[in-house]
Amino acid sequence: MASELRYTANTQLEHLHARYTGTGHADLTKYDWVTHQHRDTLSSIVGHPPLTSYLALADGEAIGRLKFEMTERMLQPCGPPPRKDED
Questions:
Q1: Cα–Cα–Cα angle for 25, 17, 77, nearest 5°?
Q2: Number of H helices, E strands in the chain
Q3: Were both Cys, which of 3, 56, 72, 75 would link to 66 (CB 3.0–4.6 Å)?
Q4: What share of residues in the chain are helix, strand, coil (percent, to 5)?
Q5: Cα–Cα dist 81/74, whole Å
Q6: Model pTM score
Q7: Average pLDDT for 60-67
């Protein structure tokens, strides 16, 4: 019974990781996790027109300009990746 439960839990977890790319895994670094969070937030803002309109009004910019800037920020939302140690 316990092995069946473990199998279904692992299967469900694998399904979640395949379906939602930002759910992470054991080897995920802090930088990768934060990058996923920022990209999710920016894509949500761009994907919801009322929120985009609100932010454009608050910033005093055009909606298209705000969408362009947020899309550009999705490339490297947290700056360049940290250097990896070559151990």
A1: 70
A2: 4, 0
A3: 56
A4: 70, 0, 30
A5: 14
A6: 0.69
A7: 96
